[in-house]
């Protein structure tokens, strides 16, 4: 340690404070989104989210109950109630109030305002009011009261209900949530399996060209997937066209539409006139598999090379086949590396936008994923922060949970994965 | 069929197909083609062992070849041809067209800015946090919190920071913290994301915020690997904490710093989502990856789009070569 000579560093306090400041800065934006997702639209536009954690002073206009609720007590007519309950506001404390919009600070809590022929109004600090008059109240509406009140922080789950369950066309988050899972799970599992076998071959089998293949994997690690978009989209299109030609005859005007369907095609549920999109889950799973493989092979190979040589050679001597060695010894021992890559791939596919845009989401929009949906919301509902914040938080919640529970493996993977 | 069911089915089919492939290809190799019995048993075992690596590697090589290697070649071909002329070879025409597009040069300039600022800032911040948190008891928690943005998608981060940069007209309550501070100090609110030139930096902040955690994790491990004796010797010689940090520790972890720097550089070259979600390249914030997306899918110009993709590839190539060189050196 730096203060090994036994003297306490005078910088210790400075260090504590600077770390606290840095953590605060780093957390602040995310917390803002989280807090905003629990506030109503009015609250969000009414005040900054950082004020939501403390009681707020706000000005509201509330009406007392109407004459329908009047009671006759001791010869006088009385309307009683609580102003906050009346308006479904959280119970707060009244600091000042008035009965005219021009003079909203006229009275203190406990004061009685003389409203002339409308009677006398008393408002207590907790919002209880009494409207008193000697003659009967008439009309249909209550008295207007202008309150300046301190209301405690209030939060609502309404945004989450709206975003996930309202089923409105613009708020397809619930569906997108499921779709994202549908993309993510196969796109995480398949590359692990393929990569594990390849990594074992590269780590423990001797064959010509091995060094070259490892170099190729390292090279492919950094190839930008941007290059793959158009070639692969064309390739997926060609696969669709070949499938249609195999299962029937294509429409001469559109090679991706069935003109007729043969027996096998009918068995698989295709109908004449049906168009097949080159975009879809299969394509996105394949794409994620291809793009994830270099890192998977690299991570797993580096880990497997470090496994003790004795175990593997003993097993070979005992007559185990390579396949048995792989499944019974290598795979279980490589669990930490497998977990590291699984987390990487999960986070990457869950958070991905570009691959989904290009390979998955067709014009129908049925297969939209959350990242795409949020970008859509940014465009169409840029001002509706309650929807935007909630949608974003729904999509962030899953990776954050994974992150906090499996951070150990993530860190381990990062350390192994950065090319040394 | 619901896509989720379809997904589960695909996992089941895909996983069993993979396992089936590996298992049966091995069985066929060992039992049918080169059986380890009869008079050629020894020779057969050797032959089977020559072929087996390729059985294990085949799916991976096929996927890598098709999804990463082939596209590089194909994109190069597309960038030299014209789609409207039936794919005729037109030499460097697409590159010429791109070079007279002001938007391309705007993207190049912005990418250069990103390349200068983001890797440097993330690495420096990561180093700072790594060094500071190593010395305190609650360092692990602090690290974990600063590392957290790594788990957040670029799109999620875009929303988070849009709220930070949000602007309301003067006189109404500001709900973006930056403008709230500005107004509280007596300034005027700004719409930060539409402020040409400076808005680039506001976008960069988002990536720095995300990448600092990455840099911190790697550098923190490297700092802990610095041999105690060197630090002890420096203390005995009367070095102060700053001298220890800059003169003893930094030189010893220089290799790791370079790795972090290049890794973030690659991320920067590919940055797409942040710009796409926050400004979509408007107000002079275009970057190469988004420019390419624009050309490919909005203007439907595959030639220029592919040319832009090749420019990104070209910029990545030095790092690619360097990585391969290092990996090979390490294996020897």
Automatic annotation (TrEMBL), chain A:
Superkingdom: Bacteria
Keyword Membrane: yes
Transmembrane segment boundaries: 12-35, 183-204, 211-233, 280-300, 329-350, 387-406
Any one Gene Ontology BP term: transmembrane transport
Cell compartments where the protein resides: Cell membrane
Membrane topology: Multi-pass membrane protein
Main localization (coarse): membrane
Keyword list, A-Z: Cell membrane, Membrane, Transmembrane, Transmembrane helix, Transport
The protein, known as: Maltose ABC transporter membrane protein/trehalose ABC transporter membrane protein/sucrose ABC transporter membrane protein
Organism: Celeribacter baekdonensis
UniProtKB/TrEMBL annotation, chain B:
Annotated compartments: Cell membrane
Bilayer topology: Multi-pass membrane protein
Pfam family, one: BPD_transp_1
InterPro entries, per database record: MetI-like, MetI-like_sf, UgpAE/MalFG_permease
Boundaries of every ABC transmembrane type-1 domain copy: 108-323
UniProt key word Lyase: no
Alphabetic keyword roster: Cell membrane, Membrane, Transmembrane, Transmembrane helix, Transport
UniProt GO cellular component terms: plasma membrane
Transmembrane regions: 6-29, 50-70, 112-133, 145-164, 201-223, 253-278, 302-325
Keyword Electron transport carried by entry: no
GO biological process, one term: transmembrane transport
Main location per the UniProt record: membrane
Family: Belongs to the binding-protein-dependent transport system permease family.
PANTHER family in the record: BLL4140 PROTEIN, DIACETYLCHITOBIOSE UPTAKE SYSTEM PERMEASE PROTEIN DASB
UniProt protein name: Maltose ABC transporter membrane protein/trehalose ABC transporter membrane protein/sucrose ABC transporter membrane protein
Species whose genome carries this gene: Celeribacter baekdonensis
């Amino acid at each position: 340690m730096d203060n090994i000579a036994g003297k306490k560093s005078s910088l210790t306090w400075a260090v504590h404070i600077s770390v606290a400041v840095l953590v605060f800065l780093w957390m602040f934006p995310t917390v803002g989104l989280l807090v905003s997702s629990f506030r109503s639209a009015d609250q969000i536009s009414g005040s900054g989210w950082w004020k939501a954690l403390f009681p707020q002073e706000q000005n509201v206009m509330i009406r007392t109950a109407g004459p329908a609720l009047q009671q006759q007590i001791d010869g006088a007519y009385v309307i009683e109630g609580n102003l906050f309950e009346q308006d479904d506001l959280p119970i707060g404390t009244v600091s000042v109030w008035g009965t005219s919009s021009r003079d909203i600070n006229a009275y203190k809590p406990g004061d009685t305002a003389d409203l002339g022929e409308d009677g006398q109004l008393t408002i207590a600090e907790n919002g209880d009011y009494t409207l008193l008059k000697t003659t009967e109240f008439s009309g249909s509406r209550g008295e207007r009261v202008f309150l300046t009140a301190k209301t405690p922080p209030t939060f609502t789950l309404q945004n989450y209900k709206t975003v996930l369950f309202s089923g409105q066309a613009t708020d397809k988050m619930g569906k997108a949530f499921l779709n994202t899972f549908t993309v993510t799970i196969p796109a995480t599992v398949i590359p692990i399996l393929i990569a594990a076998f390849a990594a074992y071959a590269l780590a423990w089998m001797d064959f010509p060209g091995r060094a070259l293949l490892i170099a190729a994997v390292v090279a492919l690690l950094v190839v930008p997937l941007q290059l793959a978009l158009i070639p692969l989209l064309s390739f997926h299109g060609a696969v669709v066209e070949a499938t249609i030609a195999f299962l029937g005859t294509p429409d001469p005007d559109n090679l991706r539409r069935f003109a007729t369907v043969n027996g096998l095609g009918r068995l698989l549920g295709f109908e004449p006139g049906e168009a097949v999109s080159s975009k879809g889950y299969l394509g996105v799973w394949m794409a994620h598999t291809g793009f994830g493989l270099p890192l998977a092979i690299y991570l797993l190979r580096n880990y497997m090379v470090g496994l003790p040589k004795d175990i593997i050679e003993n097993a070979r001597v005992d007559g185990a086949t390579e396949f048995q060695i792989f499944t019974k010894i290598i795979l279980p021992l490589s669990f930490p590396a497998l977990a590291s890559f699984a987390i990487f791939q999960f986070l990457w596919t869950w958070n991905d936008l570009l691959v989904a845009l290009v390979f998955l989401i067709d014009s129908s929009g049925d297969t939209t994923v959350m990242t795409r949906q949020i970008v859509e919301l940014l465009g169409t509902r840029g001002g509706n922060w309650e929807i935007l914040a909630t949608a974003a938080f729904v999509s962030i919640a899953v990776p954050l949970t994974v992150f906090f529970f499996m951070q150990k493996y993530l860190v381990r993977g990062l350390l192994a994965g950065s090319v040394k | 069929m619901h896509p989720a069911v379809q997904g589960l089915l695909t996992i089941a089919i895909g996983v069993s197909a993979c396992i089936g492939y590996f298992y049966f290809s091995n069985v066929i190799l060992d039992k049918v083609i080169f059986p380890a019995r009869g008079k050629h048993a020894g020779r057969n075992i050797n032959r089977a062992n020559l072929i087996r690596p390729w059985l294990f590697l085949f799916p991976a090589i096929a996927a890598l070849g098709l999804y990463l290697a082939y596209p590089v070649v194909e994109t190069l071909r597309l960038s030299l041809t014209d789609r409207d002329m039936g794919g005729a070879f037109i030499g460097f025409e697409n590159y010429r067209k791109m070079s007279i597009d002001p938007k391309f040069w705007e993207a190049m300039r912005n990418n250069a800015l990103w390349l200068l600022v983001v890797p440097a800032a993330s690495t420096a911040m990561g180093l700072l946090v790594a060094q500071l948190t190593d010395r305190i008891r609650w360092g692990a928690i602090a690290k974990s919190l600063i590392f957290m943005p790594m788990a957040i998608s670029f799109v999620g981060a875009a929303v988070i920071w849009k709220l930070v940069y949000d602007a309301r007209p003067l006189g109404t309550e500001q709900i973006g913290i930056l403008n709230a501070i500005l107004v509280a100090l007596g300034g005027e609110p700004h719409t930060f994301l539409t402020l040409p030139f400076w808005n680039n930096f506001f976008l960069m902040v988002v990536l720095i915020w995300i990448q600092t955690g990455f840099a911190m994790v790697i550098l923190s491990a490297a700092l802990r690997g610095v041999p105690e004796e060197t630090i002890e010797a420096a203390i005995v010689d009367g070095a102060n904490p700053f001298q220890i940090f800059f003169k003893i520790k930094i030189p010893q972890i220089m290799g790791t710093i370079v790795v972090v720097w290049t890794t973030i550089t690659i991320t920067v070259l590919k940055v797409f989502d942040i710009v796409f979600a926050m400004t979509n390249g408007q107000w002079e914030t275009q970057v190469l990856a988004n420019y390419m997306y624009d050309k490919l899918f909005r203007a439907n110009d595959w030639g220029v789009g592919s040319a832009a993709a090749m420019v990104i590839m070209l910029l990545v190539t030095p790092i690619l070569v360097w990585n391969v060189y290092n990996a090979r050196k390490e294996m020897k």
